[in-house]
Amino acid sequence: MKAMSLRLLVAACLLAIPALSLAAERPTPRHARGSPNVLFLFTDDQRPDTIAALGNGHIKTPHLDKLVARGLSFTNAYIMGGTSLAVCTPSRACLFSGRTLWNLENQDMWNFELAEDHKTMTQVFLENGYTAFATGKHDPGFGRNGHFARSFNAGDNLYYRGGHRGQNRTPLFSVTFENGGVTKTKKPADGTFNAELFADACVEFLEGRKGNKQPFFAYVSFMTPHDPFNAPGEYLEMYRAEDMVLPENFLPEHPFNAGVHHIRDEKLMQRPLRGEKLRAQLARYYALVTHTDAQVGRILDALEESGHADHTIIVFTSDNGLALGSHGLTGKQNVYEHSVKIPFLLSGPGIPAGEKRGQLTYLYDIYPTLCEMTGIPVPETVQFQSFKPLLNDAKAEHRQHLSFAFLQWHRAVRDERYKLIEYCVDGERHTQLFDLIADPHETRNLAQEDAHAGTLARLRKLLQDERRRLNDGETPSPFTTQLGKDFWTTCEGAH
């Protein structure tokens, strides 16, 4: 009898082992169900003045207008500039890592692979029980063992680094996540515009979430309105070149050498810029914005139909702006407002509708903000600052100033009113000082006016303080360390 009992006990233990092993293979989400979803809509090269509801009467953005009406519009949201000619790449690296521009690791002019000890924005959601979905542009971190692999567990219609000949001839990939890596399968281009394909992938993902209570983070990274400016014909027909209004700060040429005249984006149009050609370019650019807006509308409709709309935080923003004729420039490789300022909309449960916030913010402040909004601890490696207090308090304080940089040529700082830009190029130094309240388009340089000497001195000291605080010239990357040293050495010896 005792032997029988012992055999039964051993058998019961053996039967239990597979069950215990199976349970161990199913990680229990550390974050409770019922947390809000996140839908992150991210465009490429979108100027801050390209939303009709925020004052541009020449553009059609009906779906973004709805987001403006439903939530908060941040009217002073910025990027930090760029440590690459491809400004979007460091901007996206800052967003995903939560690290400031001069504290990114593993980078050179074109490559940014985020260090493993820096948890990415979507990775922390994935580790807290969320499904993390991706579609669209993914640069940096595009390799099998890169940070993309640890940031998502679902996705389709992905674009990885490489050129494309048009918005309807973009090489995309399907992906499979396995063994801590990503297997990519190339899809043949069939003439469909990439913004539509990215929306298709997100719509399909949302349709599959019906009845699913597990929270999700859906990251939709559009490649538009970045050039090439080819949109579907029906959208091109919405805008006539002769109806386009040139920017208030349009110039045929930049007034001095800013170091950028030789780069790709500035070679897209001949100098001096001609009004009629720029109007045609603006018409095509606006057509891309409106086409992208239509895809945003499709995604929002799918979110509504999925049953998750009332429980989803929606972010709409862009990786950087674009000059398009402002200050005689055409690209984003500068630190003027049109290039470092971005559209930024936020809506969802508990967020006031139809309100604006004018406090100074960085795009990258959204990482810790989303963590706090969903009850997820902010990783200690994140260097940006949550603006959650602003959501329900229009008078709450956030940042008193922001700083910007572009490669080894430009440095800038702004406070709530004034902005200083220092240029050090080929041994020459140029200084600009703008009153952004009286002159939001940066057309009147106050640097030589005696009445503003005190402001100039104060901002120059602040710029030096930011240099030290942010490690400009002493970064974790040899490449960016040299950029900082080159700027400050040239600046100190320039005339």
Brief rundown of the structure:
This protein has 495 residues and is of the alpha/beta class. It is built from 12 helices and 17 strands.
Characterise the protein shown here.
With 495 residues, the protein is α/β, with parallel strands linked by helices. It folds into two domains: 37-390, Alkaline Phosphatase, subunit A, CATH 3.40.720.10; 402-493, Arylsulfatase, C-terminal domain. Helices cover 30% and strands 18% of the residues. The chain has twelve helices and 17 strands. The chain has helices at 2-24, 62-70, 88-97, 121-126, 147-151, 194-207, 233-236, 275-306, 337-340, 366-374, 453-469, 478-493; strands at residues 37-43, 72-74, 77-78, 81-82, 131-137, 154-159, 172-178, 181-187, 216-221, 312-318, 344-347, 355-357, 361-362, 402-406, 410-414, 418-425, 428-435. Mean pLDDT is 91; it is low at 1-28.
What does the main sheet amount to? 8 strands, mixed
Distance between the ends: 100 Å
Q: How many E-type strands?
A: 17
Helix content estimate: 25-40%
Q: Total domains, how many? A: 2
CATH architecture of the largest domain: 3-Layer(aba) Sandwich
CATH topology descriptor of the largest domain: Alkaline Phosphatase, subunit A
Helix-strand topology string: HEHEEEHHEHEEEHEHHEHEEEHEEEEHH
The parts where pLDDT drops under 50 for at least 5 residues are 1-28
Briefly, what CATH class of the largest domain? Answer: Alpha Beta
